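Subject: two folds for Thursday's group meeting

Dear M.,

Sorry for the delay on this. The cluster queue was jammed most of the week, so I only got both jobs back this morning. I'm pasting them in the order they finished. Each block is the input sequence followed by the predicted structure tokens. Could you check whether the formatting survives your parser before we put anything on slides? The first protein is the one we discussed after the seminar.
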Amino acid sequence: MEFLSRLSIRRVHRITACFTPARALHESGSRNLLTVLSQRGLLQDVFPSESNNESQALFELLQSGAQTVYCGFDPTADSLHVGHLPAILSLLRFQRAGHHAIALIGGATARIGDPSGRTQDREPLSAEQLAQNTRGLRENLRRVSANEQFLCGEEARGSMTILNNNTWYEERAAVEFLTSVGRHFRMGTLLSRHSVQSRLQSPEGMSLVEFIYQMFQAYDFYYLHQHYDCRIQIGGADQLGNIMTGYDFIQRVTGQDVFGITVPLITSSAGDKLGKSAGNAVWLNREKTSPFEFYQFFFRQQDSCVERLLKLFTFLPVTEIVHIMNMHCKEPEKRGPQKRLAAEVTKLVHGKQGLESAKRCTTALYHNSVDALEAMCDQELQELFREAPFIELMLEPGTTVLDVCRKTCAIPDGARGFEMITAGGVSINHHKVRNPEEVLILGQHILKNGLSLLRIGKKNFYVVKWLQLAPETESFRSCK
């Protein structure tokens, strides 16, 4: 208990000063925060349960002054994904209401592996991979937070801090940690958690390392409670057991009340959880999921769920969402809610430029727009046609349609390839070409950005970048 006493004495209260400018926003913004979270579908459970009047206790706590709330994100991949957005948006809503939000990257806990929602152990991460993943998550969180501030344009607000729990574990000795912290946990309680029970009953079983994951997450909550006066933890619905363990630990050691809020898990139309483990993740990192792919994911949502997603993933007022849905009833063919949803979430994750990129790609692909193709940079074309070969060729005088098709290996050799062109099976920049001996023309076959989009049949694309062009065409666009 000695180290616990030292931590209590060293508790840091420097957070309070951060909120003075946001006082007015806090008094107005957090008054109905829990109601707002509930109305928008971001509030699934409050722990402890409502039967103990804890929802009222949490409401009163939020009214008493600016509070600190945290949510953890383990860097098991180099990017967050759409499934993490409800938790991130909940943090941002607390921040907008004048509270202090902590996004905790689990640099240490990622090495252990959260068993929640899994059927087998996670693959161990190397130090290099863990460092790369941590950088990726930090960049995701920083960018979304910056975009939200730009979109909402509010000056008076709380603050956002990104921490790494490796900071307080890297110098702890294992024996000292287990004897001072581990003694406060009871096996019966730990074994009763759903995440543990489901794993113990599986063919793979459960390793000791994964079993004690909940102890480390509980200690994270305790550490933030002691050093940052954090009394609220946010997590996905599958994190309720871990949150309960943290609550029990803090109650046992300090006797103080803390709270947990769970947000819903985002599932596919088939009911599968969206995430890395399920293999259907929509990533927040542009290199893994382009702004175009990200935009299209939301644009393709069904009418039956689009209103819910507008409430979950955007900061649009509920009254505006109701108006959008009313207009949709009159003109469903325009897919107005889907367009607005895709635009708002893409701006939040990829910024205004990311949304513009997504729209350019959409116009180029689905509206056969040559102007949109010319406005695209190399990166956008590679993202749009992710599976298409990206080929660099030297432009020689007299290069023909047949030449470029053969150099890219887009058509078979001999008469069969020749006939594919004459039969209309080849298009360059959305225009069919039927003369194999036609010489390539700048501005027609080769766009001003030095690129050509070659299509064979309906679905086979090739992106050609020409390396030697006339001076007037050598200014390539770049994505920023």
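Second protein, same layout:
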Amino acid sequence: MKYSSTLFHDKFHTHSSGKRERCMNIGKSVVFFVLTSLLLTSTFLFYFLNSTNPLFLRHNQGPNIIIQNRSHKQDQEHAAQTTNVSSSKPYKEEKTCDLSKGHWVPSLDGLSSYYTNSSCTTISDSKNCFKQGRKDSDFLNWKWKPDECDLPRFDPRIFLNMVRGKTMAFIGDSVARNHMDSLVCILSSQGETPKVIYKDSEDRYRKWYFPNYDFTLMMIWSRFLIVGEERIVNGSGSSIFDMHLDQIDDDWSKQYPDLDYAVISDGHWFFRMMYLHEAGKLVGCLYCPEQNVTHYNSDYILRMAFRAAFKHINACNKCRKTLTLFRTFAPAHFENGIWNNGGYCNRTSPINEGEVNYGLFDWQLRNVQMEEFERARNIGKKKGQRFEVVDVSRAMLMRPDAHPGEHWGNQWMKGYNDCTHWCMPGPVDMWSELLLAVLRRKEANRIMSS
């Protein structure tokens, strides 16, 4: 935003009575008023331009997060102003507001959704819950409120200006695709409708292009991040996988050096029978019947997969321009069983934090991921790699009401419920709010440290 001070000059008229002393006193008062106004205005500008990014909180400072819309030119001017002011003093790390800790509050502004299930034409039928017969809509009327600050609504113009000329890829499973589809809907409804420039036959790999911003958005399918080969029995998939803990999935790793932003996530495929291999040798298994093999839990394999992926990124000299954005595990909410034995999710409103069971395996998976993320980020700092986190786990643990459930329209799996993916529109749209907040914070840090 461009800031400037304006001085208001009053015209004083004197009588021709020759009372010069009164005129001089008035003149002195005007000069004093003008000088005082200039001093106050300069002080305000200096404070405002030197204030922290709205997503930061100083010690003993209350919540302050005012985001205003700016054009691309104004954004550049503001960045230049901030850089000029900040570069004259050493950068100091501020106390950061934790966007992942908070609660869901009613949305009273009538802006709970960025789009509708009909206004966004790219929603897949399996996530279009209203199209598939869902009647209740209260799950749309909530917004995420961090404890120490406010989370701004997603501004497509700010996002698209920030990623102008760049490439962003979502890397992971179908929940990663769920996130990317949500982002496309938000951008299409308020920003620019992109062009599909690539789609594979199974619609697992997709590439969008926003011509007005020269921005490319991709989905790169990767169930495990590492190599996981499904065993084929009688010509069909067996849901049994040979996992190679020391081999990275080429589908994403070969494209990674060409990315500016990579949003990595995974987790929901790590609950199948698996045989673990390292250096060509069998080192363990998950859910296997053999007794002479070391048995592991899903969290161990998930840990090894993320450790291998992050290790690859940190060792990649060509990847140093890529900002790695790790999105934490998004929990499922099956009740009274799992997906194939009667489990369902038919709630219609969020639960509060006091009702959340942090002993659940979902939260354990999130913590395992975070441990590997922190480990990788500490190593990456020494190598020039950049890591950030988009932590959605705590917020989504409180949203058992936002899954398709029985409203996912799968004619081949009638009677089963989808309590893993997320209805669109819905709280999955908040993930993009967090994503943009993290990107803006990263940009503010870059400017202040330059």
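Two things I noticed about the second structure. Residues 352 and 398 are 6 Å apart (CA to CA). Residues 20-50 form the longest helix (31 residues).

Cheers,
T.
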